[in-house]
Design a protein that fits this description.
Blueprint: H1 2-14, H2 23-60, E1 63-66, H3 73-81, E2 86-100, E3 107-114, H4 118-121, H5 123-128, E4 130-134, E5 149-154, H6 155-160, E6 168-173, E7 177-178, E8 187-194, H7 198-203, E9 204-208, H8 209-216, E10 223-228, H9 234-251, E11 261-264, H10 265-268, H11 270-308, H12 310-318, H13 323-354, H14 356-380, H15 409-430, H16 439-444
Parallel strand pairs: 3-9, 5-8
Antiparallel strand pairs: 1-10, 1-11, 2-3, 2-6, 2-10, 4-8, 5-9, 6-7, 6-8
Length: 446
């Protein structure tokens, strides 16, 4: 049965009737949906994963250990690094301060104190911080008798306080007040970073962790930021971290287990990550409506073909074909259309997604060429349209240097299956009329 079913289905797809809708339009409809959904989801993944990675690599870490005050901090860190799931361990402390440049008013900032070798201790942080000017140098200047300290500013923060590399700025902490400028207690801007996340670039700065302890005094709150090789193994890592801290507390009385908190990135970013997941799901559903429209069109087209081929169906039934076999012909027809459309859409969709920057550059060039041509024509006629250059993601609106794109394999496979099964289900429901076609009634009128 399989050979003749496939043969007949192939003939129906390749040779349609003159008045029947061409299967090519069905294939193109599915291909358009698969291509659009692949590119849109890839760009959305690029933006969302960029935000998530910026938060986890710069701010939140994968696991945070708070309130851990130990006299044997070095030994404890070595014990934590022995956990197989761990990628890096970085101690830090944080404080809210006001920054004041020489020619600017004070501006609030969130300062994180880290060891001077923080980028070596945490490669994930190093990968996300793009040092635009200067260097990530938090060492106190040894040649300066005044004991000048270094600070690394976010690019937008540096712009707001009119600070450049080498400039001196004053810090105002809640606990300590302005450092006495005459006594030399100022900070020199040693570097300016850009993370790609506007909130961090506008409100973050890094200084030496010892300076934060001096500024905050007794209010200093130590934190250990832990990065994992796989952030989804956070619960296993937390269990092992708790065991190590409990064992260390037996020999180290400075560790107060009641004050220690070990939290996963899932806990302190739950609302934000949940909002991103909901946004992506809604976009998936909205763009996926393309498949519903295409599926309905395929259903109408296949149902019309079933009605038009009633005599052929009657002939096949008279030759001994079962209702299931004849119905399978039209289902196979839908399968061929769905498979062709999904493949035709997925291949260029992946090519565009992996080369999204070149694609949008080409798109902008085409649109700007059209705008320039329209300006030239209008100018020759004495009118001036004054149109600006078109940009899909203008840097004046979006805080990005380039358009991100991230293809997740299982999502690409899911989109492919959507395209395939939309045609397959449409053909299955449309072929339900086959069971109502009696061979004796059909052939009687032929």
């Amino acid at each position: 049965m399989g050979r003749w079913v496939g043969f007949v289905a192939g003939r129906y797809v390749s040779r349609g009737r003159k008045n029947s809708p061409s299967p090519v339009f069905s294939v193109l409809g599915i291909a358009t949906g698969v291509l659009a959904l692949t590119v849109i989801i890839a760009v959305m993944n690029g933006f969302q994963m960029g935000f998530i990675e910026s938060i986890l690599e710069i701010s939140s870490c994968h696991v945070r250990i708070e309130g851990l005050r130990s006299s044997g901090e070095a030994d404890l860190n070595d014990s934590l690094r022995s956990i197989p799931e761990l990628f890096s361990v970085l101690p830090f402390e944080e404080i809210n301060i006001l920054l004041r440049g020489k020619n600017s008013s004070p501006r609030g900032a969130f300062v994180r104190g880290v060891p001077p070798d923080a980028l070596e201790l945490d490669p994930g942080l190093k990968a996300k911080l793009d040092i635009e000017d200067g260097s990530f140098n938090l060492y106190d200047s040894p040649s300066d008798a005044s004991g000048q300290r270094n600070i690394v500013l976010g690019a937008e923060l540096a712009r707001h306080i009119s600070a450049r590399v080498g400039d001196e700025i004053n810090l105002l902490s809640i606990t300590g007040g302005f450092q006495d400028e005459e006594a030399g207690k100022v900070y020199r801007v040693s570097g300016i970073f850009r993370s790609g996340f506007y909130e961090y670039d506008l409100g973050w700065a890094f200084i030496n962790i010892d300076d934060v302890r001096e500024l905050a005094g007794e209010a200093a709150f130590p934190v250990l930021g832990i990065k994992l090789k796989n952030r989804w193994q956070d619960q296993r890592a937390i269990n092992r971290i708790n065991n190590i801290i409990e064992l260390a507390s037996v020999s180290d009385p400075s560790i107060d287990l009641s004050a220690v908190s070990v939290r996963s990135w899932r806990d302190y970013n739950r609302s934000f990550f949940g909002a991103l997941r909901t946004e992506k799901l809604m976009m998936f559903i909205l763009v996926g409506l393309i498949f519903i429209v295409v599926g309905l069109n395929i259903f109408q087209a296949r149902r019309r073909i079933v009605l038009e081929r009633r005599e052929e169906i009657g002939l096949l039934r008279a030759l001994g074909a079962s209702v299931t076999a004849v119905r399978l012909v039209f289902v196979m027809d839908g399968f061929i259309i769905g498979l062709a459309g999904a493949c035709v859409g997925l291949v260029p969709g992946l090519l565009i997604a992996f080369n999204i920057q070149a694609f949008f550059t080409f798109l902008e060039s085409v649109v700007n060429f059209g705008i320039g041509l329209a300006n030239f024509i209008s100018g020759s006629l004495g009118a001036n349209m004054g149109s600006e250059e078109f940009a899909v993601f203008s840097t004046q609106v979006f805080y990005i240097k380039e358009i991100p794109s991230r293809v997740i394999p299982h999502e690409a496979l899911l989109i492919f299956m959507f395209g395939l099964f939309s045609a397959l289900l449409a053909a299955w429901f449309a072929s339900g009329k086959v069971s109502a076609a009696s061979p004796t009634e059909v052939l009687r009128y032929e």
